[in-house]
Amino acid sequence: MNTTFGIGNVLGTGIRIWVKNFAPFMLITALIYSPLWIWGITTVHGEMTIEKLLAAARVEQFQALLVLLLNVFVSAALTYGVVMELRGQRASLGACIATGLGRFFPALGSAMLSALCILGGSLLIIPGIILMCMLYVTTPAAVLERPGVLGALKRSRELTHGHKFEIFGLCFIMLLAAFALGKLVQTMTLPHLTERAYLDETMRNFPTYMYVNLVLQMVLGSLNAAMAAVAYYFLRSEKEGTSADELAQIFD
Question: How far apart are CA 14 and CA 10, in angstroms?
Answer without folding.
Answer: 6
